[in-house]
Write a structure and sequence with these properties.
207 residues; alpha/beta; six-stranded mixed beta sheet; 34% helix
């Protein structure tokens, strides 16, 4: 089975323009972010010939849900084909979730000089290891499903790892490289058994 998987990083959110930390703070999109989401949907409808039969996976945080809703104004994926999941949330920064950036910078634990995948920015925060394992559950579900066209709307940190998995990387490979995106970035993967994974576009900015 050939799978076409498109990942989208949520568009401009309130925390991007107000000086607050995102993470698992439950921010809404800005008006610009809502317009960006609609533009992505219009572009996908034209570029990908619509998304009939698609499954949509989306983080349950507001900014991801609102991005998916804006995209879906054009794609018209039925609500019963939405899978809303905490597993696609941004990394949890624990006490630092949603805090003012100045407060965060004052209280966060400094990162070690050498990358440590088990590092926590706050005692109650997630580590990269935990984030990878959480996102891997969605990856495994997507690959095991019968769905041939899948749209995934999530966050920068979560998609750093999910996009790496879709490229065929293991967690050990994150010690060598990471795929950082940007708000509104759109990436397409074409995955077929016994063939190389094809990435027609990565972190494409629409609008």
């Amino acid at each position: 089975m050939k799978k076409i998987i498109i990942t989208v990083q949520h568009t401009e959110s309130e925390h991007h323009v107000t000086g607050y930390v995102g993470a698992q703070g439950n921010w809404n999109l800005t008006e610009r972010g809502r317009a960006q989401a609609r533009a992505i949907g219009e572009w996908l409808a034209q570029r990908e010939g619509g998304c009939e039969g698609s499954r949509l996976y989306v983080s349950d945080l507001n900014r991801a849900m609102q991005t998916a809703e804006g995209i879906n104004e054009s794609l018209k994926i039925p609500q019963e084909r939405f899978i809303v999941t905490e597993a696609l949330r941004e990394i949890s920064l624990g006490e630092g979730n949603g805090k003012p950036r100045d407060w965060y910078n004052e209280h966060v634990t400094p990162q070690p000089a050498v990358y440590d995948p088990d590092f926590r920015s706050f005692p109650d925060a997630e580590s990269d290891t935990e984030l990878w394992n959480r996102v891997a559950k969605v990856y495994e579900e997507v690959l095991a499903s019968d769905d041939e066209r899948i749209l995934i709307v999530s966050h920068g940190g979560a998609l750093t790892f999910l996009n790496a998995m879709l490229m065929g990387d293991t967690f050990a490979d994150t010690l060598k490289r990471k795929f950082y995106g940007h708000s509104g970035g759109v990436t397409k993967f074409v995955i077929e058994r016994d063939r190389p994974t094809v990435v027609p576009y990565m972190n494409l900015y629409i609008g």
